[in-house]
Amino acid sequence: MEKNILTGDRPTGRLHIGHYVGSLKRRVEIQNEGNYDNFYIEIADAQALTDNYDNPGKVRENVIEVALDYLACGIDPSKVTIFIQSQIPSLCELTFYYMNLVTLARLERNPTIKEELKMRDFEKAIPTGFLTYPISQAADITGFDATIVPAGDDQLPMIEQTRDIVRSFNNIYGETLYEPEAVLPDNEACFRLVGTDGKAKMSKSLNNCIYLADEPEVIREKVMGMYTDPNHLRVEDPGQVEGNTVFTYLDVFAKPEHFDAYLPEYKNLDELKEHYRRGGLGDVKIKRFLNDILQETLEPIRTRRKELAKDIKGVYKILEEGTKKANEHCLRVTERVKNAMGINYFDDPKFLESQIEKFKKEN
Ligand code: ATP
Ligand code: MG
After folding, report:
1. What global pTM score does this model have?
2. Which residues touch 225 (CB under 8 Å, ≥6 apart)?
3. Which residue from 15, 47, 203 has its CB within 8 A of the most atoms of ligand 1, so it is best to mutate?
């Protein structure tokens, strides 16, 4: 069996540092380890349209933004296939057949969907396309026989839904599809990076993001405006580290060498946290430290992005070639699925033969 990987993002905006630590960084590592047969990254424009159907221009423009973010982070198109979801028609076919295997109640139970419906004020009038996007995600994954899906933890219910569909399908139509596994980031704080406002998740839809393409001054402003401990009013007050966004980000981004470079008076993060808890350490100092770290981390990505943006035609070419390869692969899988279901009327000489025999006997 092939070892195939599929992952992706919705082109609803540029990618942010939540994507970076939650998924992008891991993707580049997996790519460089090279232990796979096919590695697909999907720009999920059709899924983005399920809640942006009235703003197709936004989705269209962000396809290239997301592609630039991938390449800027080190995704190498000679090792990884980047494709655009809407250009793979057989994904719609798979979705249509999988819909028969999923109840409405099962879709409504999906905790990520529940949260997203609330966030989008969709609870009273749920668009069918939006509610069913986990089914189309099952098509995305199984359509490439992907068994490994690197993602953030909000994707776990989608992987579970895919596994359910695979099991039902195989039960009814015979062993055809493979069950996928999620690959979560190593560091738990990266499963779901909080927003700069301290809200549960950094998300394009919540306006609480630090984008990979942000300019240095914008990053600085966002860091200086970050949510900390609301009760830590004066420097001498004892402060809380848990739920303090600056410390959450430091947990994710601070490395020993950052202390040597920017804050040599502390040995490590534990010492810094201890001082904050005790009192006597101001928010401005920890924010400046975080800013230094983020500037250092994002500078090379931003520079590469600007370089890549000089050749947009070249980036589209990468997407076009990737989409062509993805299309061929998905067509092969879809044919297998349709064969299993017996909806291959013109490709099954044995069945034709048996039908001829049947009618011969009847007459
Ligand atoms: P939208 O608001 O349009 O849903 P988003 O910011 O949630 O956008 P997606 O395109 O839905 O981004 O998510 C793409 C991938 O990035 C998924 O694997 C998701 O788990 C991961 N991801 C998104 N936000 C975060 C985050 N804050 N922390 C960690 N991973 C994240
Ligand atoms: Mg999302």
Report:
1. 0.94
2. 196
3. 203
